[in-house]
Design a protein that fits this description.
The complex is a heterodimer of chains A (498) and B (171). Chain A has 498 residues and is of the alpha+beta class. In chain A, 48% of the residues lie in helices and 24% in strands. Chain A is built from 17 helices and 19 strands. Chain A has a 7-stranded antiparallel sheet, sandwiched between helices. In chain A, strands 13-12-11-16-15-14 form a 6-stranded antiparallel sheet. Chain A has a 3-stranded antiparallel sheet with strand order 1-2-3. The two termini of chain A are 32 Å apart. Chain B folds into 2 domains: 26-83; 86-168, Pleckstrin-homology domain (PH domain)/Phosphotyrosine-binding domain (PTB) (PH-domain like, Roll), CATH 2.30.29. In chain B, 45% of the residues lie in helices and 25% in strands. Chain B contains 4 helices and 7 strands; from the N terminus they run βααββββαββα. Chain B has helices at 26-52, 56-84, 124-128, 153-168, and strands at 21-22, 88-91, 95-100, 104-111, 115-121, 131-138, 146-152. In chain B, the strands form 2 sheets. Chain B has a 4-stranded antiparallel sheet with strand order 1-2-3-4, with no helix packed on it. In chain B, helix 1 packs antiparallel against helix 2 (56-84). The longest helix of chain B is centred in the middle third of the chain and has 29 residues, at 56-84. The radius of gyration of chain B is 22 Å and the shape is elongated. Classes of the chains: A alpha+beta (498), B alpha+beta (171). The interface between A and B is medium-sized, with 32 and 30 residues.
């Protein structure tokens, strides 16, 4: 491959016009969706806007598209980027000109994505992300794959001069992990279906409220009532109808989970480069992420009882303030235990997981119990109104839940502090392990309530640039020695956190 | 040269030995003034509601609500005054420490090498009392950033200068 020269200001591929056009049209439609819908409905009902003949409407729509197209062309023409020394330069803006200069060393991530339209016309988009806020993100909408890969490599190489020499030595590139279809399927099946159910329910409720009036006019509700026609008094029918609903809900959410897992993780592949890790995945939205270990703040490993049995672990990689929407992409699902260990070691090279595990004090159990009892007591109030005199029955369920919750949450909770790393295990159904490097800690807080003070218990909160973790309810003595140790570790070594 | 000596945990500088400095006493007046303003506004709102609504149930409940609120306000003030004594700070060679709270006591430490930027902010009341708030930002999650309220303006400036110098490495 010929190295491409990026030193002169260049535009993206002309196909970019199409992408910008499609993006803006999509934005326009989603922004005015409700308005358009309302207009359409009122048009179909009565002819209050009599001047809106079919030709007029077509003309208006065409006009809107034309304006969007002109904007897309102008945006394309005014979008130029180049590399100069160790900086990435970008100039944008049709009327308000904007010039962005980004030093290579401040680049946090570069990733290559390909959505459905981009797949059709065979271009990719390249996003450059810094540790700043969301606005500091740069996205180039349309590049051909070869150019994008070249640009990515050059952005990651320390100096431009090195580019030539890099090309001579063949880069080590091994595919470490590839998620098979069956494993993805298992991953989908063993997901938390309650979450999917909530997504579906909120979607349906949202749709319903949007179309409520319209549906009422059609009289669907009445028709439904007449077809189902629940006989009052027949409890069996009532139960059957409810069971039917529950079964549909469960099936629907399972299907949703599986589909979602497939779509976002299709062809999931982890590639090991010399000193970076690359994640490729996606069906409609293909993406490729590059991770550099220095910039990684935390690792979170998640699994649950069922998943652990099936050998499924999820590794999330947390970086400094990556915008929340992107955060979910930095996730590798369906990993075996030894694969997780390997990847963790690749990122945090000294990590071996060995060391003494400590547990929180038994006081933690009491806090958990009190908290869940409070919630349980609150649930009794609506239960009384729904179930009437039999409301106390619900407490049997609640008590079982509290016992299980307290037992397993306490059992799963533990922490480990070694020379380099802090590991915290937590979770009830999910087992979550958080690993942070000690020298990447940003601040430490010791917290103690007035009740804990009497019993000499305290908690330590540790913030890194990507999240905050807690060592819960340990003795005052341990807490302050951990506090001192962590501060000592951060302050005694002159190491950057990214 | 690389060394890797074993650390004796007992010899580490300990948080228990830190000599904390209280913030300016005048800040208490600002807190009380602010609180009283909020409480008065709520009480006025309650009485306005009373004169507007003619419902019998509401009238019966009104004095209970009023009583509960007054109790809450008094407790809140008492705890604020108690908690005020715990608002203390310390600047060590390598970090800034701030402690506060009675019901929930917290001791937060930010290593100076992790400070992103520092800012002095002064509200209208604070300017009248010649006080200032020192905000210390890290790259960590927003909730943990330190802000030391109720410092003497000159003290705040002094700390600000000291920390800025250290952060920028010109010291």
């Amino acid at each position: 491959m010929e190295p491409i020269d990026f030193s002169q200001p260049a535009r993206q591929s002309p196909k970019g016009i199409l992408i910008i056009f499609a993006l803006n049209t999509y934005k326009f439609i989603t922004r005015f969706f409700v308005l358009i819908l309302a207009l359409g409905l009122s048009l179909s009902k009565k002819e209050s806007f009599s001047f809106l003949t079919t030709t007029n409407i077509t003309l208006i729509i065409l006009g809107i598209f034309l304006v969007i197209l002109v904007f897309a062309v102008l945006k394309y023409l005014n979008f130029k980027f180049h590399l100069e020394k160790d900086e990435f330069h970008l100039s944008t803006g049709i009327i308000n000109k904007e010039a962005t200069i980004l030093p290579k060393s401040k680049i946090q991530n570069v990733y290559i994505k390909q959505n459905f339209i981009q797949q059709l016309i065979n271009v990719v988009s390249l996003t450059i992300e810094t540790a700043g806020d969301d606005k500091a993100e740069i996205e180039i909408n349309a590049l051909d794959r070869h150019t994008a890969l070249e640009l990515k490599d050059q952005l990651f190489s320390k100096k431009q001069a090195e580019v030539a020499s890099l090309d001579e030595t063949p880069k080590e590139r091994t595919v470490y992990f590839k998620a098979s279809i069956s494993r993805l399927f298992l991953e989908g099946i063993s997901q938390n279906h309650i979450k999917s159910l909530l997504v579906i329910v909120s979607f349906v409720v949202g749709l319903y409220s949007e179309f409520e009036k319209y549906l009422q006019e059609l009289g669907i509700a009445d028709r439904l009532k007449s077809t189902i026609n629940i006989e009052t008094g027949s409890i069996l029918n009532f139960l059957l109808a409810n069971l039917f609903l529950v079964a549909i809900g469960i099936l629907g959410s399972m299907l949703f989970s599986v589909l979602q897992t497939f779509v976002s993780n299709f062809n999931l592949e982890v590639v090991e480069n010399d000193d970076t890790i690359e994640i490729n995945k996606g069906l409609f939205n293909k993406m490729s992420l590059i991770l550099t270990p220095v910039k990684i703040q935390n690792l979170v490993i998640k699994t649950n009882r069922l998943k652990a049995y099936l050998g499924l672990h999820t590794l999330s990689i947390k970086q400094a303030m990556v915008n929340k929407k992107q955060q979910k992409h930095f996730k590798i699902v369906a990993l075996e235990k030894h694969q997780v260990a390997h990847l963790v070691q690749k990122i945090f090279s000294e990590y071996d997981g060995l060391g003494e595990n400590h547990k929180p004090e038994a006081y933690y159990k009491r806090v958990l119990m009190l908290r869940s009892m409070f919630i349980g007591a609150l649930i009794n109030i609506p239960a009384y109104f729904i179930l009437g005199d039999y409301f106390w029955l619900i407490n049997l369920l609640i008590i079982t839940w509290i016992v299980l919750f307290v037992h397993y949450t306490y059992k799963n909770a533990s922490f480990q502090i070694t020379d380099e790393y802090l590991t915290i295990n937590s979770g009830f159904i999910d087992r979550v392990r958080n690993i942070s490097e000690l020298h990447k800690i940003q601040s430490v807080v010791l917290k103690q309530t007035i009740f804990q003070k009497q019993r000499h218990i305290a908690s330590v909160y540790i913030a890194t640039a990507s999240n905050t973790v807690r060592i819960p309810y340990i003795t005052e003595e341990n807490a302050s020695s951990i506090y001192d140790y962590l501060l000592f570790k951060v302050e005694s070594q002159d190491r950057n956190w990214m | 040269m690389f060394t890797n000596q074993q650390i004796n945990l007992d010899t580490l500088p300990s948080i228990d030995d830190v000599d904390f400095k209280p913030i300016s006493k005048q800040y208490l007046s600002i807190i009380i003034l602010n609180r009283s303003l909020v409480f008065t506004l709520v009480i006025i709102a309650l009485f306005v509601a009373k004169s507007m609504v003619n419902d019998v149930n509401f009238r019966m409940l009104f004095w209970y609500v009023f009583g509960a609120f007054v109790l809450f306000a008094i407790l809140n003030l008492v705890f604020t005054i108690l908690a005020f004594k715990t608002r203390k700070y310390a600047i060590r060679e390598q970090d800034v420490i701030y402690t506060k709270g009675v019901l929930v006591n917290s001791i937060a430490a930010v290593p100076i090498s992790r400070i992103q930027h520092i800012e002095i902010s002064r509200s209208w009341l604070a300017r009248k009392f010649n006080l200032a708030t020192l905000n210390i930002f890290t790259a960590g999650e927003a909730g943990i950033d330190l802000s030391i309220e109720g410092l003497n303006y000159s003290e705040a400036k002094k700390i600000n200068d000291f920390l800025s110098k250290k952060v920028n490495g010109t010291d």
